[in-house]
């Protein structure tokens, strides 16, 4: 008998495609939020005040320009 007599059996159903699709959706949503947010994300919590402050826009301002998103 060998110490390595047991073999791992992988199922035919591969979850990596589902995981990659889920991660791609998260990345695309992140790009959308960073690229086009003008206060919409924080307005859910802060109300109309978020449209004046634009916290996420100001934090990611230089990255938005580097990525080619128009800001102003």
In short:
By secondary structure, the protein is mostly helical. It has helices at 16-36, 40-46, 49-53, 55-59, 61-67.
Describe the structure.
The chain has 72 residues and is mainly α. The chain has a domain at 30-72. Helices cover 62% and strands 0% of the residues. It is elongated and about 65 Å long. The mean pLDDT is 80.
Descriptive key words:
single chain; 72 residues; mainly alpha; 5 helices; 62% helix; 0% strand; elongated
Topology, number of strands: 0
- What is the residue-averaged pLDDT? 80
Q: How large, in whole angstroms, is the Cα Rg?
A: 22 Å
Largest sheet: none
Would you spell out the secondary-structure blueprint of this structure?
Elements: H1 16-36, H2 40-46, H3 49-53, H4 55-59, H5 61-67
